[in-house]
Amino acid sequence: MPRRKLGRLTRKNRREAKNQAVTEQHPQCFVVTRGNTGPTLKKLTQDFRTVMEPNTAARLRHTQKNSLKDYVAVAATLHVTHLVIFTQTKLGLYLKLCRLPHGPSLIFRINNFAQCKDVLSTLKKQHTHPGMYLMGPCLMTNLQPEEGDLQLQLAAKMFLDMFPTITPHEAKTKAIQRCCLIHYDAEEGVFDFRHYAIQVVPVGISKAVKKFNKRKLPDLSSFSDVSEFMTKSGMLSESEAEDDPSAHVTVPPSKKASKKLGPQKSSVRLSELGPRLTLQLLKVEEGLLEGNVLYSSIYTKSAEEKLELEKRRRIKK
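RESULT FIELD:
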């Protein structure tokens, strides 16, 4: 048999090396459930996995035998940085966000939520296609890692590290087709989580011209001339009529378009994909769901109680 030449990579090996390099650049996460959960929470967990794609395991098999140590053991090999856990008790639903492998951990109560199917059923037009999940979503938030209370700074840092970092000069704007919005309401003390699809639509083009650009021939049987169809009243959609000028951006021409056209003005529009979550921060723990309680919105312990808990924790270890 001829000897295999060393130092050369096959096409398959190059593709695997490239995918591994991309995986190491972006943060990865596990989205799992623990304890006894109903079908509603399982569907919400699957919806959240869809949000985090492709930087998560979309078909992660979880059993009751799996413990936190199992996820920590494989996290370093798979470059997993965060663990999202959905739990259910008699009091309500909870979301736990953990930094692997040593914490800290943030525990949220889910006050309200809506699944993806419920959000999409309220829309007149659903802008979903598999291609938008080839790249992770960008994050938009009003939280700052260096402003506000310490628990809010930690929450901002955790959320920012959970999503891929985007460099404005190097990022391809066409590849970014989704975004996540995390808004903190200081008056009510809750976090609103939303998931949107991003669309860039040219400005100044009527609805009739857009149909011809999409190579969809409309029904012209009721018109005597094409000009009647082009100048027909009411061919402007409601979204075009209510377009906000502050949402206009300048987009460079595509390769297919002529360079003589120059930069074109377009409008950025968001279409909600779901799910919706309203979260309330209950507790911040130092370790991986165990350790000193750094913050609690329900109960504040005295110095003697903290020492007693520390003694129990040492004995247990």
